[in-house]
Amino acid sequence: xxxxxxxxxxxxxxxxxxxxxxxxxxxxxxxxxxxxxxxxxxxxxxxxxxxxxxxxxxxxxxxxxxxxxxxxxxxxxxxxxxxxxxxxxxxxxxxxxxxxxxxxxxxxxxxxxxxxxxxxxxxxxxxxxxxxxxxxxxxxxxxxxxxxxxxxxxxxxxxxxxxxxxxxxxxxxxxxxxxxxxxxxxxxxxxxxxxxxxxxxxxxxxxxxxxxxxxxxxxxxxxxxxxxxxxxxxxxxxxxxxxxxxxxxxxxxxxxxxxxxxxxxxxxxxxxxxxxxxxxxxxxxxxxx
Length: 289
Ligand code: SF4
Ligand SMILES: [Zn+2]
Hints:
Shape: elongated
Strand content: 35-45%
Structural class: alpha+beta
Radius of gyration: 26 Å
Number of domains: 3
Largest sheet: 6 strands, antiparallel
Bound molecules: iron/sulfur cluster, zinc ion
Number of strands: 20
Order of helices and strands: EEEEEHEEEEEEEHEHHEHEEEEEEH
Number of helices: 6
Oligomer: single chain
Helix content: 10-25%
């Protein structure tokens, strides 16, 4: 079911199209004629005229609509920026006005769907429809060191279909521009830089295997979660990896050792805990940035 088609190179929503072939539209994927089906029984949609639906019609249709809407909107609501392992946000969600939209222009090794530009600042946007951005493309996008936002336009379309608003351009635009429910940061250089600094400043505590008790432990827990009761190290503090560190608000990350299985590299056993207890509370860490 195609909610947006092309007429004279411009996207047209099913809500605004004339019924049947009189709509004068073509499929945005294959360029063949489509008719506007606006009956009483089914959700209004475009359908290929005297041929099978082509496989990429929905994807192209939603891409087209998203790009056309962003070209006109001049602003977008950006989702909050989270910090790994923190409850506090690095940045709350906010409106971001932009003055230029560039569609499918090569940036280095990759062609992002959309680039939104405001002065010297640029945000790349990926409009996900049938599949999210794959690891290879994401790697190339990250190398650009620019914020990359993913908008799940298929989820927006599905939500609107459920509300009986499929093909309603105003509802689609509102969800795309003003809401953040179907948006997520795939990469943000600010977040990356802050997390790198925290990781560098935090304590890297080696995980030890306690074979006798079949436990993973970490020596010198700053919170003194547990105290050794006997042996030459009696009285020193330690933590149990799964019972203490895993639930501890100061546990920034658990690093794993990898092992090679055939041609694949798999996570083996925990190797170290990145413990940020030495940096203070979340508030103190964020204040010190
Ligand atoms: S992460 Fe928490 S429990 Fe683990 S060593 Fe650090 S302070 Fe102790
Ligand atoms: Zn088609």
